[in-house]
Design brief:
Helix content: 40-55%
Number of helices: 12
Largest sheet: 10 strands, mixed
Number of domains: 2
Shape: elongated
Number of strands: 12
CATH superfamily of the largest domain: Periplasmic binding protein-like II
Length: 328
């Protein structure tokens, strides 16, 4: 009955084949050269083949040795990956997230104290970056992304809708109302502040409401919603922005809907994104459940606020198709 090669024999063989010399393999394995030579001899006797051609001090693989080396390299690679995965799970409760910058600062950041209070033993790392993770090359557990929710090959779960409408400071609203009480004229003459990475842009919103601009006001464009919202707080202009990100200012009255009658457009915008295999990790499950609960509570507050301000909500789940068509 044939016996399988010992694991030690395969380890010694792989080291010799990779280094080309017994002495180098012995140094790497921290054993004597004679111990390595003995393991190679036993392996060759067990298999009934020669694995190396011996030319003075240099060794080269035979055809059979080359085949065995390729198999050993592949097998050891699988074992190393499994060991790294096991080590990761045995580490302290560490979760690595990547989050859209404005969402991280204005929405997630203020809520993290609740999560940390209930999970004090966790190590938490959050990268606020607009760039999505490359899960094959980076050590990231999950992303919270802003966008369309159509990232191929990844698990995508909607957590929060956006409610978008024109908002500004009460001072700026009153300044515009002194010029005209007409919603149309107010929007025609207001300075518009753009969040250039937002899904819904001013040109699309104006076209949807059939409003033509005649203002000579210079354009203000920012690549972070947090910066655009700050300009609205500073009474610089009107921003077409997310009540998700500006809720605290809206609730306190620092910002107000400019034309409540025109309503807020609601569409899915924030997503948990990760490889499907990450869903089995307990840390990912716990954090995902917490984020979803926070999002549900937050969305209830937004709906109550808009109802109190008599702002109608228009669901637009197909907004991405609309935007794609309008930009052609």
């Amino acid at each position: 009955m044939s016996r399988d090669p010992s694991l030690n024999g395969m380890i010694y063989f792989e080291a010799v084949a990779r280094n080309g010399r017994v002495a180098r393999a012995a140094e790497e394995l921290n054993v004597s050269p004679s111990a390595v030579s003995q393991q190679i001899k036993l392996l060759e006797e067990l298999l009934g083949i020669s694995l190396f051609r011996r030319d003075k001090r240099q060794l080269s693989l035979t055809l059979e040795g080359e085949q065995l080396y390729m198999a050993a390299t592949s097998a050891f690679g699988i074992l190393r990956n499994a060991r790294q995965s096991i080590s990761r799970h045995r580490e302290s409760h560490q979760l690595i997230l990547r989050v859209s910058p404005s969402f991280a600062v204005r929405w997630l950041g203020p809520k993290l104290a609740d999560f940390i209070r209930h999970n004090p033993e966790w190590d938490l790392r959050i990268d606020a970056s607009p760039d999505p993770s490359n899960f094959d090359r980076e050590v990231v557990d999950l992303d919270i992304r802003y966008g369309h929710g159509n990232w191929a090959g990844l698990h995508c779960e909607e957590i929060l809708s956006d409610y978008v409408l024109p908002i500004c400071s009460p001072e700026y609203r009153d300044r515009l109302r002194k010029v005209s009480n007409s919603d149309l004229e107010v929007l025609q003459n207001a300075r518009l502040v753009d969040s250039i990475k937002a899904i819904l842009q001013w040109d699309n919103w104006l076209a949807k409401h059939r409003i033509t601009r005649n203002s000579n006001s210079s354009a203000l464009r920012f690549d972070r919603s947090s910066m655009a919202i700050q300009q609205a707080i500073n009474s610089v202009g009107v921003v077409l922005e997310s009540t998700t990100l500006a809720y605290d200012e809206l609730a306190s009255g620092t910002l107000v809907p400019l034309v409540p009658e025109l309503g807020a457009i609601r569409f899915p915008a924030y997503w948990i994104v990760c490889p499907s295999r990450h869903q089995s990790r307990k840390l990912v499950q716990v954090f995902s459940n917490w984020v979803i609960q926070q999002a549900e509570y937050h969305e209830e507050k937004i709906n109550r606020f808009l109802e109190e301000k008599q702002v109608p909500i228009y669901d637009d789940p197909d907004i991405f198709d609309y935007l794609a068509t309008s930009r052609q």
